[in-house]
């Protein structure tokens, strides 16, 4: 569905995206595009959505270059970052225009509008002008315009920015639902927790470079040289005595009723830990991985490349 | 679901219809006021003079038409309306939402400009009709209406193009209208043809019979056949709209609204 072959993007003298290569296969699912501000997420999304042509290399979406390519643009939807909508128009009039510009007309357009507005829960408020809508409502309308023509690929740039918690949850549920129905969704965010709630598949960008791709676990496996922190809850003294005998131990600190250990190669250590706990060799009540999450992965990788 | 990309005609229709309500908002009424106010004010003065038993000169209509509408209001209208066209989407960063559609991008400037053209043409026509009350020559009425509407088409197209070519398009437009156009009185004949004023006067009749000794032209005033003058304005306008579409179509415009090196 998406192929980048050493695609790069320059803004004059500034490199927005270093030569990047990756592929996203056909089919539904959500892929998260992660990175701090300025990492190149929007640059990548602009290449994929055909707004900008690559400065070097090649970009193919549905097998074709997307820049000003109607056959590609007819199959993708874009929800850009920010709260930008044309002033002075009502949502339904604007959506009708967007539908017509996507090739819809007549009853098909009416049905598409009703469906898209229904999906985003704005069917009864579409007559309002944008200036009379809340930010969350405008975000829903922006999503509706991208869904009008039932795109196979939906690209969202920082869609959760500025939304209240309830609106975020609603949008996440909506995206999951669309993905289950076969839409391929590419969503960018600089907030790791948002992506972690949506998907396990991520592309990690930093300073215009694609650092890693895969699931959180896969990426974490790339980082074996970074110790994993585990919290062992139980009798701290006994747990510490057991831990210091393990060859994988890199660091240890005591907490109230627990011990936090940093270990290399947790895949070697964990079976022994489980066995010792099962046999009653150590007084372990709970085991919590502290950094096997996106934040830790992100921090490790960006630290390496900073 | 994959739909066929809309034709250029459908794109023009959709964009013009979608943005049509914008002309009924603040900027649209400013545009209307620009032409209606001077004519309305002239009518009020004209009426007051007649009530007091005076005799208003028909030359006043000619003066208002040439000195106020053609020289000042028409360029100001173009300077006011063009930034509300496709340039507005560029500045408000809403253009990417249009450009990710399969519709032909080159049709968007004209599609968004058409409601402004229609709205301006309506009020220009009303203004020219209002001048008849001041004593305008009925035989010149069709020519004046055609001149204003065609010049409006050309000037709006020019300003739309300049707005896409330059960041300070309004400034360049203002310099053209208020520095170059007045030079028509001293320009040699072939350069007179590079002004809107020349074609407007060729269509609507010039003020040659009204000028006094101290207003004698520095150069011989040339005339273009009205049909050719009308054609020139229409073709020039169409060329400007086409170039604006071409510029938009070939320019990479990202989410930040700026151009990227492609």
Walk me through the topology.
The complex is a heterodimer of chains A (306) and B (262).
Chain A: E1 2-11, E2 14-24, E3 29-34, H1 41-48, E4 56-61, H2 70-73, E5 76-79, H3 91-101, H4 106-119, H5 135-147, E6 153-157, H6 165-180, E7 184-189, H7 192-198, E8 201-206, E9 209-215, H8 216-221, E10 228-234, H9 236-243, E11 249-255, E12 258-263, H10 266-278, E13 284-289, H11 294-305
Helix pairs in contact in A: 3-4, 4-5
Chain B: H1 8-19, H2 26-51, H3 59-81, H4 86-91, H5 95-99, H6 108-133, H7 141-165, H8 169-180, H9 189-192, H10 196-204, H11 226-250
Describe it.
By secondary structure, chain A is of the alpha/beta class. Chain A has 2 domains: 2-221, 3-Layer(aba) Sandwich (Rossmann fold), CATH 3.40.50.300; 228-305, Alpha-Beta Plaits, CATH 3.30.70. Helix content of chain A is 37%, strand content 28%. Chain A has 11 helices and 13 strands. Chain A has helices at residues 41-48, 70-73, 91-101, 106-119, 135-147, 165-180, 192-198, 216-221, 236-243, 266-278, 294-305; strands spanning 2-11, 14-24, 29-34, 56-61, 76-79, 153-157, 184-189, 201-206, 209-215, 228-234, 249-255, 258-263, 284-289. In chain A, a hairpin with a 2-residue loop joins strand 11 and strand 12. In chain A, helix 4 crosses helix 5 (135-147). Chain A is elongated, with a radius of gyration of 23 Å. Chain B is mostly helical and 262 residues long. Chain B has one domain. In chain B, 66% of the residues lie in helices and 0% in strands. Chain B contains 11 helices and no strands. Chain B has helices at 8-19, 26-51, 59-81, 86-91, 95-99, 108-133, 141-165, 169-180, 189-192, 196-204, 226-250. In chain B, helix 2 runs antiparallel to helix 3, helix 2 packs parallel to helix 6 (108-133) and helix 3 runs antiparallel to helix 8. Chain B starts with 7 loop residues before the first helix and ends in a 12-residue tail after the last helix. Chains A and B meet through strand 1, helix 1, helix 2, strand 5 and helix 3 of A and helix 1 and helix 5 of B.
């Amino acid at each position: 569905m998406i192929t980048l072959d050493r695609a790069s993007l320059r803004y004059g003298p500034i490199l927005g995206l270093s030569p990047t290569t990756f592929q996203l296969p056909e089919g539904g699912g959500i892929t998260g595009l992660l990175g701090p501000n300025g990492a190149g997420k929007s640059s990548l999304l602009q290449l994929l959505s055909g707004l900008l042509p690559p400065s070097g290399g090649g970009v193919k979406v549905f097998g074709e270059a997307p820049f000003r390519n109607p056959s590609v643009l007819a199959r993708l939807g874009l929800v850009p970052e920010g709260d930008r909508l044309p002033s002075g128009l009502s949502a339904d009039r604007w959506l009708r225009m967007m539908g017509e510009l996507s090739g819809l007309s007549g009853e098909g357009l009416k049905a598409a509008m009703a469906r898209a507005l229904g999906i985003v829960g704005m069917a009864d408020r579409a007559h309002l002008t944008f200036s009379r809508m809340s930010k969350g409502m405008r975000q829903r309308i922006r999503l509706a315009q991208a869904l009008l023509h039932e795109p196979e690929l939906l690209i969202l740039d920082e869609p959760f920015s500025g939304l209240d918690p309830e609106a975020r949850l609603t949008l996440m549920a909506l995206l999951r639902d669309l993905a289950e129905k076969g839409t391929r969704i590419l969503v960018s965010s600089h907030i790791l927790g948002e992506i972690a709630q949506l998907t396990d598949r991520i592309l990690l960008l930093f300073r215009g470079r694609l650092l890693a791709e895969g699931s959180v676990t896969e990426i974490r496996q790339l980082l074996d040289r970074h110790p994993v922190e585990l919290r062992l809850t139980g009798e701290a003294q006994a747990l510490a005595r057991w831990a210091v005998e393990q060859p994988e131990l890199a660091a240890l600190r005591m907490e109230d009723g627990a011990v936090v250990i940093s270990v290399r190669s947790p895949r070697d250590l964990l079976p022994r830990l489980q066995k010792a706990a099962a046999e009653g060799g150590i007084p372990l009540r709970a085991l919590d991985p502290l950094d096997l999450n996106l934040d830790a992965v992100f921090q490790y990788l960006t630290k390496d490349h900073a | 679901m994959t739909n066929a990309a809309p034709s250029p005609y459908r794109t023009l229709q959709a964009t013009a219809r979608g943005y049509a309500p914008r002309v009924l908002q603040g900027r649209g009424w400013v545009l209307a006021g620009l032409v209606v106010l001077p004519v309305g004010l002239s009518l009020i003065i004209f009426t007051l003079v007649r009530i007091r038993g005076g005799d208003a000169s028909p030359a006043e209509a000619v003066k208002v038409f040439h000195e106020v509408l053609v020289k000042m209001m028409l360029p100001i209208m173009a300077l006011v309306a063009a930034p509300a066209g496709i340039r507005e989407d560029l500045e408000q960063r809403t253009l990417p939402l249009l450009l990710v559609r399969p519709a032909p991008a080159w049709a968007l400037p004209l599609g968004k400009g058409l409601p402004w053209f229609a709205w301006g043409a309506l009020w220009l026509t009303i203004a020219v009709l209002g001048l008849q009350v001041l004593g305008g020559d009925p035989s010149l009425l069709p020519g004046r209406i055609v001149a204003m509407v065609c010049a409006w088409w050309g000037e709006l197209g020019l300003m739309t193009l300049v707005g896409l070519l330059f960041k300070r398009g309004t400034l360049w437009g203002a310099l053209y209208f208020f520095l170059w156009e007045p030079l028509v009185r001293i320009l040699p004949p072939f350069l007179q043809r590079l002004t809107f004023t020349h074609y407007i006067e060729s269509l609507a009749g010039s003020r040659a019979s009204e000028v006094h000794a101290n207003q004698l032209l520095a150069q011989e005033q040339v005339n273009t056949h009205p049909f050719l003058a009308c054609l020139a304005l229409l073709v020039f306008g169409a060329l400007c709209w086409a170039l604006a579409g071409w510029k938009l179509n070939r320019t990479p415009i990202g989410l930040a609204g700026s151009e990227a090196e492609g």
